Amino acid sequence: MTEDVFSVDAVVIGAGVIGLACARELAQAGQEVVLLEAGPHWGEGTSSRNSEVIHAGLYYPPQSLKAATCIAGKQALYDYCASRRIPHRRTGKWIIATAPEQEAALEAIVRRSQACDVPLETADSGQVHSALPDVRASAGLFSPTTGIVDSHQLMLALLADFEAAGGMLVCRAPVESVTSDRDCGPHRVVVGGESPTILSAPRVVNAAGLDAIDLLARWSGYPEAVSPAQYYARGVYFSYSGRHPFDTLVYPVPEPGGLGVHLTLDLAGQARFGPDVEWIGSVDYRVDLARASAFVRSIQGWWPGLEPERLQPAYAGIRPKLGPADSGFHDFLIQDESTHGLSGVVHLLGIESPGLTASLALARRVGERLNVSSAG
C-alpha cells in the first residue's frame, strides 16, 4: 500500500441514498468531500432494494428520530423531486384491517398521526369498499401524503449535485480501517481495493448501511462499549404481472419487524407485493420461491381476486436492525462526539425504513452535528 496520504475536508463512507445525501450536504456547504463506495457502483445495496415509497410518517413514536426525519424528509423529498424533475407521484395509501380485531391497530396509528400532525382519514367498511371495491376490509385509514419515487433517479440527482459542488465519488474503494485520535489530528481512513490509499480528514461520516456496524470494529479509537449489536431482517418482494385494479398503495396493519406484505406500485403502474420479514444471520439476498405460498395466503386475506400464478419473484432487501425479533421499536441511531468522544465523526446506524424518505432530513442533521450546513 502506498504511504501517500491525501488530505480532504470530509470523507463519507457508503454511496447509498443516505451517503449520497450526506456527501451532497457537505459539498454544497463548501467542503472538499470524497465519497467512498466498496462496491462497483453507487446505490446498489439497501437503497435499490426497497419499496420506493415516500412514507407519510404514521408508524413511529412522536418524539422519535424516525418520526421527525420522516416527516421533514417527506416534504423535502417532494420539493426536491419537483425541482429536479425526478419521477415521483403522490399516490396516497390505504391501511386496512381485515377483521374487527385488527381495528385497534388502526386506532393506534390514528393516535400517532395526530400526535405528529400527519394527515390521515378514517373510513368504515363501506367507505373502504367504495374506494377499493376489490378489497375485503372491516375498516381503513387513508394517507393522502404517501407517494412513490424513482429511487435510481433520486440518487442520480443527488450524485449530480454532489459532483457539481466539487465532490469526488470513488467506487471499488472498501474502507479497511479508520484511526481516530481523541487528542490531536485528523482521522486516518485506510482504503483498499484497486487503488489503495490513505485519506486524512477532520470529518468522517459512516453511512455504510448494512456494513456500518461492522466498520466500527475496524475503527481504532472508537469505544467498543457504545457499539450496538447488528441484526438482519430480510424482506422478499414479488411482482404481479399484467393488469390489476389498484391505483393507490394498500397496506395491511403492521406486523412485528415490518409493515406487512403490502401492495406498492412503480411509476409505470406495475404492482408488487412485499416485503415479508425473515430474520437471518448474515447478508443474503436470495429469494426463496417457497415463500410465495405465504404471500398468496396473506394477500388473499384482503384481496380475494389475486391470481397466484401471476406472482413472480422480484428481489430481496435487508433491513439493518438494532434489535432482534420481537424486541420492539428501535429508532435511527446517529452517534456523534457526544456518544463516542471523537470530534468530527458521525455514525448513522440502523438506518432502515423510512430511510429513503428521511434521507435529506438525515443529511441536514449530519451537517448540523459537524457544524457544516448547506443553504440548499
Notable characteristics:
five-stranded mixed sheet; six-stranded mixed sheet; 376 residues; FAD/NAD(P)-binding domain; D-Amino Acid Oxidase, Chain A, domain 2; alpha/beta
Give an overview in words:
It is built from 9 helices and 23 strands. By secondary structure, the protein is α/β, with parallel strands linked by helices. A 6-stranded mixed sheet has the order 10-3-2-14-23-22. Strand 12 and strand 13 form a beta hairpin.
Briefly say what this structure is.
This protein has helices spanning 17-28, 65-84, 103-116, 125-131, 151-164, 212-216, 292-300, 337-340, 355-369; strands at residues 5-7, 10-13, 33-36, 53-54, 88-89, 93-97, 121-124, 139-143, 147-149, 168-170, 175-179, 187-191, 197-201, 203-206, 219-220, 231-240, 249-252, 262-265, 271-274, 278-280, 311-321, 333-335, 345-349. With 376 residues, the protein is an alpha/beta fold.
Number of domains: 2
CATH architecture of the largest domain: 3-Layer(bba) Sandwich
Please state the CA-atom Rg, rounded to the nearest Å.
21 Å
Largest beta sheet: strand ordering: 10-3-2-14-23-22
Task: Itemize the secondary structure elements and their pairings.
Elements: E1 5-7, E2 10-13, H1 17-28, E3 33-36, E4 53-54, H2 65-84, E5 88-89, E6 93-97, H3 103-116, E7 121-124, H4 125-131, E8 139-143, E9 147-149, H5 151-164, E10 168-170, E11 175-179, E12 187-191, E13 197-201, E14 203-206, H6 212-216, E15 219-220, E16 231-240, E17 249-252, E18 262-265, E19 271-274, E20 278-280, H7 292-300, E21 311-321, E22 333-335, H8 337-340, E23 345-349, H9 355-369
Parallel strand pairs: 1-13, 2-3, 2-14, 3-10, 6-17, 11-15, 14-23
Antiparallel strand pairs: 4-9, 5-9, 6-8, 7-8, 11-12, 12-13, 16-19, 16-20, 16-21, 18-19, 22-23
Helix pairs in contact: 1-5, 1-9, 2-9
